[in-house]
Design a protein that fits this description.
148 residues, alpha+beta, 2 domains, five-stranded antiparallel beta sheet, 55% helix, rod-shaped, binds zinc ion
């Protein structure tokens, strides 16, 4: 019983970690950012006493910590943007088989779609038979068509 609950809690943890990483990262960045600001303040205070070496040391620590924060934030933002781009939309092209109409429509790909498949849904314009004439993956820059 004990083992069972343990493994179950582990499983739920692993599924939610990917979304938690970002919030942890932001927390760490905020703490380091606060510390770097404190270091810069200390540097300014030490500089007033005339100890330039210690002031420079604190200023250096503050600046490096701040640069790290900016880098981490930039890196995490870049990653989330890439993930969003990696989900392409698959579209299905439907054409009316009535030569006088030839109404062309596109909709999101549905399971069981294939090229040259006759559809039960009638054309919205003339009520004629419709057929799938193409299935393509939507790409942001270029529209690549894999139609036969
Ligand atoms: Zn039609």
């Amino acid at each position: 019983m004990r083992m069972n609950t343990l493994s179950r809690s582990k499983q739920t943890n692993s599924t939610s970690t990917s979304s938690r990483i970002n919030t942890y990262l932001i927390l760490i960045v905020l703490v380091v950012l606060a510390l770097s600001i404190v270091a810069l303040f200390v540097a300014a205070q030490v500089l007033l006493t005339g100890d330039t070496i210690t002031a420079g040391l604190f200023a250096g620590i503050g600046l490096i910590a701040m640069a790290m924060c900016v880098f981490l934030l930039f890196q995490s933002r870049k990653q989330t943007a890439e993930v969003k781009l990696d989900i392409p939309k698959v579209m299905t092209i439907i054409e009316c088989q009535n030569k006088g109409c030839a109404n062309k429509t596109t909709r999101e790909f549905q399971r069981g779609d294939y090229v040259f498949k006759d559809l039960d849904v009638a054309c919205g314009k003339c009520g004629g038979k419709q057929m799938i004439t193409g299935i393509y993956k939507e790409v942001k820059e270029k529209e690549k068509t894999y139609a036969v």
